Amino acid sequence: GSDLYDAFDNVRERYTCANDILGYDLAKISFLGPSEKLRGTQFTQPAIFVHSIIIDEHLKSSGFNPQAVAGHSLGEFSALVSCEVLSFEDALKIIKVRSHEMAHASEINPGTMVAIIGINDEELQIICNQSGIVVPANINAPGQIVISGEIEAINTAIKTAKSLGIRKIIPLNVAGAFHSPLMISAREPLKEIISSVNFHNAKVPIYQNVNAKGENNSTIIQKNIIDQLEKPVLWSNTIIKMIQDGITNFFELGPGMILKGLNQRINKEMITQNFEKIEHLDTHAIL
Fold first, then answer.
1. What is the spatial distance between Cα 149 and Cα 111, in angstroms, rounded to a whole number?
2. pLDDT tens digits for 107-117?
3. pTM for the whole thing?
4. Is residue 179 annotated as part of the catalytic site, yes or no?
């Protein structure tokens, strides 16, 4: 986000607002790190959210408005701002609590996550059948699943996956077992902050992680983002449903190109463009 920060007054205003809500200098951590600190979920979540919203606002100022929105895990909060369910400020207040409580839950119940490539549904069931907690956390694309759970149980699950002949197993550099029952302690604080801010009906449908369905009703949306803490992100189902509902072109907003890659695995015919840096905002290059 540093290139955008240097170029635009309204971006600097967004970071100033974020600093006031969070109580620390988000811009400094985002741009300068250190990376070990930025990887902490209480810093990663606000950093990704603010950057994503800045991109969203710049695209809209150029006349690009979504027909529908979705977000992967934390990204669902950016999507909620984009479709005007939440204000930027209220979403960041929720994220401040969510990220802090998820980090705290990770300290109470240590865990980890692992991506497994080239896996089918039957193998997933076998891999998750451990004595400890191991659950599907991200259903990202056909054959690409992330599991989440207790460290010892995950290590056993990795051995099980290898015994099934699965070769591509990637431990993720995360702070805890997100989208699993190990996040239970974060649920009540999240519900409390969510009940304290204003939710509005969505201006365009938001396809949510827990059920992969387009939703406009603010009450249902609130319940779904609370359930998201402990339930898997149904990303593959979400994209398939959006395509079925007539969405053909997708914009990925924020750092990286991970969703673009996942979307290509889900449907090779779909178009996804990523927007991360200032040069990506050249509207003449947008399909």
1. 5
2. 999 999 999 99
3. 0.93
4. yes
